[in-house]
């Protein structure tokens, strides 16, 4: 497809009557996407770990857009019990889902483990969203017309590799390598999900995106202990001089979620300055992210670890 080189979230079509779930909606990219969806009339379910922060974010959006339809719902992606509780609550309260934005994440943290014993970055960024998508897929498939799953990745996926012999970083842990692995996993999942949805003839598309270099608080949650003073200053300068705003960083997610010409299996990101900023375009991702054998193996491992079933057939041509 041809890309809209000057597209902004203001050009989203009306979202009236549509329901969107955004994980990590209380800050950064998730907050800006929530604002954009609400401005176009969507009902946004703000799926967040910290209820107090989520409610403040909801109130801020409502102040800018009186009458905005917003619901705060507890979700801790580092705890599969919380994921299951969110899904159960959603199924009780709502029948359909038009867009699921798998956005929340952690970046370059010291090694720790989730409630289920997974390395935190792999557990939150990939496995939590893998299980959430499985739980919400029935609602997505019940929705009349097309629905979408949008999974947030990162340009750093290009540095990633899936270490099936040490997925949880128990023997060897590097925080940036773990982050890159989790972001590669996001893409492998998004593409494999789309292939399986097509095999099932489902009216659901799976699309991936990345924000480029966006000025959010995500990087502030990492550990600066291995950064020298010069590196910290350099990072601060890069953020001020190169990074785009969180609002602009959310444009690819909004584009992937709503643009009528986006195909399943697409990868959307900023189109200017080496892919770190600019208006959203459809782009290429690494060869490894498109490797079907790796994707299929990761899918099976993720299903075993989370005990989550998407109830979808293997893609055509796969065993």
Key attributes of the depicted protein:
319 residues, alpha/beta, Rossmann fold, eight-stranded mixed sheet, two-stranded parallel sheet, 15% strand, globular
The low-confidence parts are 219-225, 233-241
CATH architecture descriptor: 3-Layer(aba) Sandwich
Structural class assignment = alpha/beta
Say what the CATH topology is: Rossmann fold
**Can you tell me the overall shape?**
globular
Strand content: 15-25%
Number of helices: 9
Number of β-strand runs? 10
Q: What's the CATH C level?
A: Alpha Beta
H-E string: EHEHEHEHEHEEHEHHEEH
The separation of the N and C termini measures 31 Å
Q: Profile the largest sheet.
A: 8 strands, mixed
CATH superfamily annotation: NAD(P)-binding Rossmann-like Domain
In percent, how helical is the residue content?
40-55%
